[in-house]
């Protein structure tokens, strides 16, 4: 096993066995994640310094979180798999909790639905016969009010009462007005909350249900648009990438892929044309804070990776549905709540796509065009987080550019609203249905090793006007660029009026032609910072929500921008805290955290399922090469591409003539 | 002929004939553009108010610009083609000039190269035998210095002196240090300018050429990358769009396409699902101001539409090269300098493309995924403006979204620089070659008629935190949105910290579910405003460069954001001037101008030809429909898509097992 590989089944099983060995036989344990614990920086440096013959290999390790079932005792264990020994075993301090898991979510729904108090509320609704109530258990969030215990806020919905047997009826169209609270330790309902449905904070007791219509997304319950002809992507000679185990090679790119329950896809040792670029790239977390100030909605803030897991929630990607063309799949491997290895089939797909023209020039004197198309490599995973979906993809092009693209889709989180009522923190998307405003703030963790050195530097470049001056700028058109080194760890912002562009540089490597430090720049789309007030729990917890860029000095185990344990966390434990060390980082082993995302004011077109909103971060070489690194890509030709001519129109035969003849 | 169609050949010929009739027979005229002069608002309202039987049709008109050859006398003529009469004929006032034309550019190059003074300079260079010098004539720009006469600044380059017979040698790798000035009236060289090549403003006399290497882009002079396997797009049942003359229909979209010498592609009467959205959409101009304050570079500011023409410079798109898949082509029709109709073959291509997933949801309880792919319609044109290329595309999706996408590629504009010298307004991209910083600011003109009314409103929506308050925001998470009407014509800016989103609303049409005004929002990427100083000619001329959004009240003939005549213009004559009328526009016939683009600090990877930089503006429905307008698109299935499985990996068979067995 390569030191950076994901755990294999035997390693998961060994971890579970060793952890169980820490307790009396028969002790019920609930596992909350078993993942690779990567080697330290020093260990990897030692390993990688070797030539092809690797006499030294760092030990394999795993990281395990688990509960004593039915208690709040939560543990963190690091296991040396090579020696079969426990390296560290601690009880996680109070105030920190484990994430959800699949089995628990299903169990909580059942508990909520079967509780006598829930049944009392359902009675009051006076639903049609056979109506089926559904429950979306939500992580509790944090508000400092009776939230020491891990618990769930269960938002209640209903299938279309006229089609209760339809398992995939869009229950979000029928939000109910009461919400059971389930204690995750005792696995019991502790009380029923009521949701405000008017314009103010007041709640009322559950009333008879007002009949409204459904809003379904499954195709058999919708009209079917016509006229769409098939479009197929063929690669008759196969794909251009080579996937050998975890190693992926394509068009001068080389990288290692891995997968774990929390981050989903992780890339290691990303290089282009033999030159290292990124040691490790991964989605670090995402925070979705909601804007409704009224209880219990004020607690809604999901950390989809820390509270759940991008690997845990990865879809089983289907050939020809999720991916088009010639596709390779990779499974993921995680553990279930009993510590047993579980395959996540087809958790990642790998394929090429054509993305239009990459470069073109025509010398107008000769009319000779040279055009090269932009082929891309896509490594993709899709996660379902209860109502929402995120399509996550690493995309590489042939000119040394890496992009991380996120598409938000799925179903808005809905809550009930009385007819005729408006509130300034949500949109009515259906009769009786409000979709609250929320933000999606994602954090991409980038651990660079630009051109082979782990010590890199974060800089930003801005362009600014020269002052008008008879000697230096007589006509007032002049402007210059200035590059500023980021000297200290901290959070930094974009400034589009200055065209501020952040770059990762290697100051030890100069471009041989123009002498500039080799660099990679980042195209970061602006996102509104977290709007929650500075002293709120929303703000404290979502460390990374306040700046577009964070940079820290590398320390072991600083992987997750919101901290190790986000669920019901009430403190700042992640990147904001690490950045506050304020270390000198002007030429150091840095980690860059890129924040991006969306302010989501729902529109009715986002319901019942939203058309994707797409956001992406791109990394492009700047004076890293000596010319366009894709100048050698073969020209785009009809022989290669075999496009089809649709309208029998060739080479300048003007079929507009027919229009013209009528105008004489 | 439909009132909004482009001119046909006979109409161009008639225009020329009538214009010639204004002068003595045999008078030499130089034509600078013959285009449709669209009907007035009133005429079109009268026409469109009719049912299918159109008893009233507005007259067909053309707009003609021309010079008396060899003079500065420049004319603007509007012709009623239906009656065959001149409606208006004026001499364009001094201070305004016509654009370039193809024949003139070729002629100027010849004049510059053959002038004795040029030959003297070439002698001084002491070039290798057979070396071929090349000339890129540039529009003059404006600086208030001897610029009343229309003239050209001729930037000089050389083919690889070791391969002078290679017609497509990248001459931009060999910029020369002298620059002839050509008077466009007399068509003669008036003097030789010298280019600064050091760090300062000084110029020297022409020195013997220092031998440097070439930097070629044509494939036969470059290495050829291997490993790229073919990727073909097939549409075995044909494409899903219908193109009947100018009318294009696809997946509920309907629109008219047309083409003219200045704007290239124009769309009229864009509607979705029978509901009108945009009366007219077109690229209005683009300005490329340069940053080097030293003469003659201080004058470099190109208006690629006003100074030349997006139709004039449109590429002949080649099947299988520029476009992949099943493609339809449309020719364009323009006029040459003698007023003869000239076909621009394959100036526009129309095709579909797959752009990944459009929407997806999986009910985690059942595991049933519903996924729909995002098919797009692309209407594309590519323009070559001397060294640069722009790929321009209107892109439509199935959920009512329209995008205008621009890709900048082609070759940087270069100038000579001495070895070892750096300047703060350019990047050295090759030995002896500097690429100056510049901005690309594009302006998209959008004339909306949202949901059938020409009177619309521009608004912007912002989200902001509620103040913390025990009664209204006790936990500090609350935030609200606020929509502000733009009451007055003017220029407006983005503000990402407030998540300011501009929308076009129709206040007369309410969403039947949530009562909001139907609207379309605009996703506008931020661009640094024009950096040139307020009193500079750069600034005055590039009206639209100072704000991301302009809104004006519709007036006839206000089509071009930089004004009607941009070439060597020294005043503000376009959108900034019109917006300064400051009319009330809170519910009126408005025109929206969207500015976007790039601050271009060249990197060495942009040479010899730059990988595309992509910018786009998107228009999305907001409470315009009652649910996701693409909820009816058929599901993505393997049967339809016929993807290929590459790694023999099916349905959860874990082929990671092999890795695991070695770790026991």
TrEMBL record, chains A, B:
<dbReference type="InterPro" id="IPR015802">
    <property type="entry name" value="Cu_amine_oxidase_N3"/>
</dbReference>
<dbReference type="GO" id="GO:0009308">
    <property type="term" value="P:amine metabolic process"/>
</dbReference>
<keyword id="KW-0801">TPQ</keyword>
<dbReference type="InterPro" id="IPR036460">
    <property type="entry name" value="Cu_amine_oxidase_C_sf"/>
</dbReference>
<dbReference type="Pfam" id="PF01179">
    <property type="entry name" value="Cu_amine_oxid"/>
</dbReference>
<keyword id="KW-0560">Oxidoreductase</keyword>
<comment type="subunit">
    <text>Homodimer.</text>
</comment>
<dbReference type="GO" id="GO:0008131">
    <property type="term" value="F:primary methylamine oxidase activity"/>
</dbReference>
<feature type="active site" description="Proton acceptor">
    <location>
        <position position="304"/>
    </location>
</feature>
<dbReference type="Pfam" id="PF02728">
    <property type="entry name" value="Cu_amine_oxidN3"/>
</dbReference>
<feature type="modified residue" description="2',4',5'-topaquinone">
    <location>
        <position position="388"/>
    </location>
</feature>
<dbReference type="InterPro" id="IPR000269">
    <property type="entry name" value="Cu_amine_oxidase"/>
</dbReference>
<comment type="similarity">
    <text>Belongs to the copper/topaquinone oxidase family.</text>
</comment>
<feature type="active site" description="Schiff-base intermediate with substrate; via topaquinone">
    <location>
        <position position="388"/>
    </location>
</feature>
<dbReference type="InterPro" id="IPR049948">
    <property type="entry name" value="Cu_Am_ox_TPQ-bd"/>
</dbReference>
<dbReference type="GO" id="GO:0048038">
    <property type="term" value="F:quinone binding"/>
</dbReference>
<keyword id="KW-0186">Copper</keyword>
<dbReference type="InterPro" id="IPR015798">
    <property type="entry name" value="Cu_amine_oxidase_C"/>
</dbReference>
<keyword id="KW-0479">Metal-binding</keyword>
<dbReference type="InterPro" id="IPR016182">
    <property type="entry name" value="Cu_amine_oxidase_N-reg"/>
</dbReference>
<feature type="domain" description="Copper amine oxidase N3-terminal">
    <location>
        <begin position="99"/>
        <end position="193"/>
    </location>
</feature>
<feature type="domain" description="Copper amine oxidase catalytic">
    <location>
        <begin position="232"/>
        <end position="631"/>
    </location>
</feature>
<dbReference type="GO" id="GO:0005507">
    <property type="term" value="F:copper ion binding"/>
</dbReference>
<keyword id="KW-1015">Disulfide bond</keyword>
<protein>
    <recommendedName>
        <fullName>Amine oxidase</fullName>
        <ecNumber>1.4.3.-</ecNumber>
    </recommendedName>
</protein>
